[in-house]
Amino acid sequence: MRKELALRSRLLGISVVSIFLTTLSLVLFVLAVADFVLIAVWVGIPLLVKEVAVTRSLTALHRRYAGGLLGEQIETPYLHVPDGSLLVRMRAILADPAYRRDLLWLFLDGTAGMFLAVLGVAEGLLDLLFWWLPPGWAVGRHARLSRAFLAPSEKSRLALRVQHLTESRAETVDTQAAELRRIERDLHDGAQARLVALGMSLAMAEEQLTSDPEGARALLTEARTASSAALAELRDLVRGIHPPVLADRGLVGAGQALGLAASIPVTVNAELAGRLPAPVESAGYFAIAEALTNVIKHANASAITIALGYDGTDLRVEVTDDGVGGADPARGTGLRGIARRLSAFDGTLVTESPPGGPTRLVMVLPCASSSPKTSPSSGTA
């Protein structure tokens, strides 16, 4: 009985607050209409951008409360608004299908929603007097109204998908260009320089072969050393493009090799029944390598666990450490680099790192198994 009374009192409080919020919705709708009229004299542009910011704060509040009442999470449908002038931002806002739905929702929330809020107050008072009446009918209808217009529509989902793929493609192109510049720089400053020195040493040795055999022998020894160093640099460069261990042993074996090379204990647990497409394995490998590097550099951890799993649709990689926590993708280039690498495959990165630890990175890559060959089922490094 006490719980029932608390529930009815809470629903009554929500209805009271909703009266003020629906009034704000109606005011924002009127302001939006006025902003459109004032765009002709340019005054409406900054007003519209400010009004949109307030509207999105209000809709975020309604998504949270409506989702809580309905027992689900209502996603945010908005496209990213680029930085730039007010005119650029306004065009991006007006091109977003979710904004037009927001305008319709403001009108409906300020009219039908206000009616439901007032009805909810009246109903809530009756609920407290007549406890056998079903509680929260108006509150539930108001929550469903908000969900119908504030959740992403199919058009919004498509627009979000297109924007995500466009941004991923641009980031992938930039990443590939940077990688090509790195390879070119490594070749120019490393192997190429050593091969030039090797050629000079051989030419000098050839000149001194008859007049100074000992000097020629020293030059040949120097040339042999230079050739060995150039070969080692070329091998390192090739490993950086596609590690041989990844091609030979797959992602599980390559992950175990990374764990063996780490300066702190790494445990690898894997459930992969077969080999995955080479690009996916490569992306997973370098993401794991970057994650391990971040942990060793910044986490002050004593142990790391890598878990690999494949459910027939997605490759799931989890890297957990017992370090100090506090990892934030917004403040570190390492995590952003991992996210960019995964986004090229429509993958995702979720970071869980409360202060004090532990830190858990969850990386998901959509893919399909490419062969029935089995990989090692587990390993410990």
End-to-end separation: 57 Å
**Average pLDDT value?**
81
What is the quaternary state of this protein?
single chain
Which residues form runs of ≥5 with pLDDT under 50?
370-381
Number of strands: 6
Beta fraction = 5-15%
Instruction: Please give the largest β-sheet.
Output: 6 strands, mixed
- Morphology call: elongated
Number of helices: 10
Order of helices and strands: HHHHHHHHEHEEHEEE
Strand order of the largest sheet: 4-5-3-2-1-6
Rg from Cα: 31 Å
Helix content: 55-70%
Structure class: alpha+beta
Secondary-structure blueprint:
Layout: H1 2-38, H2 44-70, H3 86-94, H4 97-129, H5 137-150, H6 154-208, H7 213-241, H8 244-261, E1 266-271, H9 278-299, E2 304-310, E3 314-321, H10 333-343, E4 348-352, E5 359-366, E6 378-380
Parallel strand pairs: 1-2
Antiparallel strand pairs: 1-6, 2-3, 3-5, 4-5
Helix pairs in contact: 1-2, 1-4, 2-3, 2-5, 4-5, 6-7, 8-9, 9-10
Report on this structure.
- By secondary structure, the protein is α+β, with helices and mostly antiparallel strands.
- Helices cover 67% and strands 10% of the residues.
- The chain contains ten helices and six strands; from the N terminus they run ααααααααβαββαβββ.
- A six-stranded mixed sheet has the order 4-5-3-2-1-6, with helices on one face.
- Helix 1 (2-38) runs antiparallel to helix 2 (44-70), helix 4 (97-129) packs antiparallel against helix 5 and helix 8 (244-261) runs parallel beside helix 9.
- The radius of gyration is 31 Å and the shape is elongated.
- Residues 370-381 have low confidence and may be disordered.
